[in-house]
Structures are given as C-alpha cells and as structure tokens.
Design brief:
mainly alpha; three-stranded antiparallel β-sheet; two-stranded antiparallel sheet; 16 helices; 5 strands; globular
Length: 336
C-alpha cells in the first residue's frame, strides 16, 4: 500500500522532479505491480522500496518520471474505454447474457437456478452461455446431484467447440468446477485428475493468466490434501510467478487467497497468515469498487475466514474469535 501511494505521489510530483525507488533484496516489502508503473520498472521484485526525491543517479535504482507515469496510466486505460464504447454502440445485449452473469456475480444462486434451470433438466439443450452459469450456481449451492450432469453437458459442448460466455473463453472451467466438487467430497484423486486436465487445457489453449491462477489454486489444494506436497509446492511457485509478474494487476487478492488455501492444505498456517497479513480493504480499493461483482461474497469472506482459521490453528484464539465475530455481524451471513 505504501508503494502504491509513493507511485501515485510520483505521478503528482512537480515538473522536473523524479521519484527514485531503491530495491534491496531480502526484505518483506510488497511487490510493485505493473498497473501503477511502466512495464520496464520491475520484472520480479522482492526488495525494500524506499521513496526519495532527487535528480536520479542510477546505482541500482529504478526511476519513474512524472510524464512516463501519466502516459502509462492513460495508455492502459484506453483499451478499456474504447472497448466499453464499442460494446455500448454495438448493443451489449447481443454480446452479454447480462442476467445470468449478474446473478452469478452477486452469488444469487437460488434465483439463477429458478430462472435458468430447464424444466426437464435437459442441460444439453441449453446454450453454453447460460449453461456454464447454471453449473456455477449448482456448485455454489453444493447441489452435486445436478452439478455433475450439468458439467457433463458443459464439457460436451466444450469438446464440440462451444465454450464462450460473455466474450470469455470458459473452456477450462467445467473441469475446474468438477475438481472443486471432488475436493469438497473428499475424492482427492479424482480432483487431481480433473484439475490437471483443466490446467493442461489452460496452457495448451494459452488462456488468460486469470484462468491459470484459478486452476493452480484448485490443483494446489488437491495436491496438498492428497499429501503430494512437492506438487503443491510447484503450484505455489507458479502462483508466485504470476503474482510477481504483475500480469493480473490489481487482482492480487485472488492469488494471495489461493496461496493461503494451499498453505492451509499443507498445514502451514503461519504462512497463510503471513500472506494475508494486510487489511483486505486497503489494497486495490478502486478496482474493488468498479468490478461489478460482489467482492464481499467472492473474496472478503474467504480472505477473512482463511485468516481466522489460521489464527485458531496456531493458537491465536482471541484474534480468531474477533475475526469470526466480525464476519457474523454482516447481514448476508446472519441471514443464511
């Protein structure tokens, strides 16, 4: 958070002044992501970051110039703005199945099932753009009786070349949801097989880093719970590589949650605490305000629950109880 503030201050620095960021290996400073700095700034950094205003001698220092910062931020915003304008002008309704996406994003699974479940549960007749969200609703409701037939139909469509919903390639998602269900049912060997197939698809199809991170999350947990520690460690290394690359920008919370989940599966609770040692609200607050999905349901609950469970497991019972009590005060949880 401090690094972000410093970078923003650099963008506001008086004309002719520059910010110099000093990187020292071995400290615990957070990584400076690519969404606030030019791509040339950092590839993989695990160093202390210290702000100084000066003329900028270059002895191992990284210099961010005010003009560079402004142009980088502007250029990165342009594709989003242009894309939004194109969608508005062309008619979003033809490109997005807004209702299903909206219900799923708000975790309103019961309503999604009510509106989209076919009367005869003949999932094969549904378009993939609706079916994948229905499968997600069954997964959220832990309705395995309907989930597995739904995923069978979705996988058949993926195999036939139908795997887009809302302009996103969801081809690896049915296998990932299947792996998650097997983990919840304690069938770890089946979970590993499904997650490995999902990950192979992500790599072979060159899908987005977001898909890779989400699949590594499930795969790493499956390995950890099955006692295959070295492969769980490999998932951790790959997730950290994505995190340090900055390729997911302000979505680092999702990777931190994934890392913490894997650490818990390996009974390394202190490391889970360390990775979630910050306040959820203090990071990427702007992105969380504009994403359009319910970050409380999809991120804050797992973030806080994992942290509090880890507190309990290492004997920090008072902190765990305080954290659980805070979660229970939210109306959404009270009304479950």
């Amino acid at each position: 958070a401090r690094t972000r503030r410093q970078a923003v201050e650099g963008a506001r620095a008086p004309s002719g002044r520059r910010i110099r960021l000093e990187l020292r290996a071995g400290s615990g400073a957070r990584y400076l992501p690519g969404d606030l700095a030019a791509d040339r700034v950092v590839a993989s950094v695990t160093g202390a970051v210290r702000r100084r205003l000066g003329t900028g001698a270059s002895y191992g220092k990284v210099v961010l110039e005010k003009t560079t910062m402004r142009y980088v931020l502007l250029l990165r915003a342009l594709p989003v703005v242009i894309g939004a304008l194109i969608l508005l002008l062309s008619g979003c309704g033809t490109l997005f199945h807004s209702r299903a996406l909206s219900l799923g994003a708000r975790a309103n699974y019961s309503q999604l099932v009510k509106e989209f479940e076919p009367p005869d549960r003949n999932f094969s007749k549904m378009p993939f753009s609706e079916l994948i969200y229905l499968c997600g609703a069954y997964s959220g409701l832990k309705n395995y009786q309907n989930l597995f037939p739904c995923l069978d139909a979705a996988q058949t469509k993926v195999n036939a070349g139908e795997y887009y919903a809302d302009l996103w390639n969801h081809s690896s998602l049915p296998l990932r949801m299947r792996a998650t269900a097997y983990i919840e049912l304690g069938q770890y060997e089946k979970a590993i097989a499904a997650a490995e197939s999902s990950y192979e698809m992500v790599i072979n199809k060159k899908l987005e880093k977001w898909d890779e991170a989400q699949t590594l999350d499930v795969l790493g947990v499956a390995y950890g719970l099955a006692g295959i520690n070295e492969k769980a460690e490999d998932s951790i290394r790959k997730l950290k590589k994505i995190l340090y690359s900055g390729s997911l920008g302000s979505m680092e919370d999702s990777i931190n949650i994934a890392l913490a989940r894997i650490y818990i599966s390996l009974h390394r609770y202190q490391e889970a605490i360390n990775i979630l040692s910050y306040k959820y609200e203090d990071v990427s607050t702007f992105a969380k305000a504009i994403t359009g999905w319910d970050v409380f349901i999809h991120e804050k609950i797992p973030f806080e629950f994992i942290k509090n469970k880890s507190f309990f497991e290492v004997g920090r019972v008072t902190e765990a109880k305080e954290g659980y009590d805070n979660l229970l005060r939210y109306p959404f949880i009270r009304n479950l």
